[in-house]
Amino acid sequence: MPAQDIVDLRSDTLTVPDAGMRAAMAHAEVGDDVWGEDPTVRRLEDEMARLLGKQAAVFVPSGTMGNLACVAAQTRPGDEVIADAQAHVVVYEVGGAAIVAGVQLRVLEMENGIPDAGAIAAAVREPDVHQPVTTLLCIENTHNRRGGAAIDAAQVHEAAHAAHARGLRVHCDGARLFNAAVALGVAPADLVTQCDTVTVCISKGLGAPVGSVVAGDPETIVSVRRWRKRLGGGMRQAGVIAAAGLYGLEHNFDRLADDHANAKVIADAIAGCPGATLRRPAVATNIVMFDTEASAAELAAGMREHDVLVSAMGPRTLRCVTHLGVDAAGVSRAAAVIARVLSD
Ligand SMILES: *Cc1c(COP(=O)(O)O)cnc(C)c1O
Q1: Residue 1 pLDDT more than 50?
Q2: Given this model, what pLDDT does residue 223 score?
Q3: What's the Rg (C-alpha) of the chain?
Q4: Which helix (H) or strand (E) holds 70?
Q5: Check: CATH 3.40.50.150 for 19-251?
Q6: Over the chain, what is the mean pLDDT?
């Protein structure tokens, strides 16, 4: 079975750099970034800060490290951090916030992925000698495990306002913030004006092989930079990979809309299937999540037999993610295979 016939919808992290991106990497001007001397890294940081409406930014090896450094930079050990129960920082970061930052995560079950003002008011601890001090709200946009939901600016503003009113800082895990911006038809900066820090991945929809960028105010970014070094994330001639991010911003940003259109083709095919219930966020992006009556692992294995790869996100939950490695023809073939296996 030739590799090019496989339609891989397991994740948008599976994208590989194309010839143009590899050429940009090969020709990148570099220096020692820990010394602040890599011009390409600095260009990526400046460009991302501009796009996100922030004054400063720092390139980090992964979104996980970016989130952890932001939590650590904005809390003290023993503090409490509020996050949705399905947030990446809660589910997929190996307890880093607890081990490294020494904070306690207080999780809220928010169907739409973001707490409203009332939920935040109820979750912030009283100034009581028995209780931890609540100092940070983490939101996620788009929200991966809430079906790739794009959270609109009004919802972000409500949550951030409620948090700030109680003295909390606000961090946005915007691994896929650009997907949210494209789906909502707004500038990325509009979704984080009220957020103190934001992490954005270049290694997903933009197609770069490695890396994320954290943006925020200069003072906080100095602290995040120090945490990056402490965590072992100080990189030397990192311009080679930052160049891929710059290339991705230039060539792969606008086409995120294609990924959303492709995801809709898959969602529409699943919507008509018995035995599957589609999770429908108010604003969908490049992620399609659905609950199944049969075992997710068995269904995924059945799809794999037809060269369509999807990921099991739970015993009865499957996820498909569209990205630049999957074209419209691949998507329609995948949609047909998924519908056939679900209807068997
Ligand atoms: C991918 C992702 C991250 C970061 O992942 P890394 O693999 O560490 O770069 C963070 N948050 C969300 C929601 C993600 O999907």
Answers
A1: no
A2: 98
A3: 20
A4: helix 63-73
A5: no
A6: 97
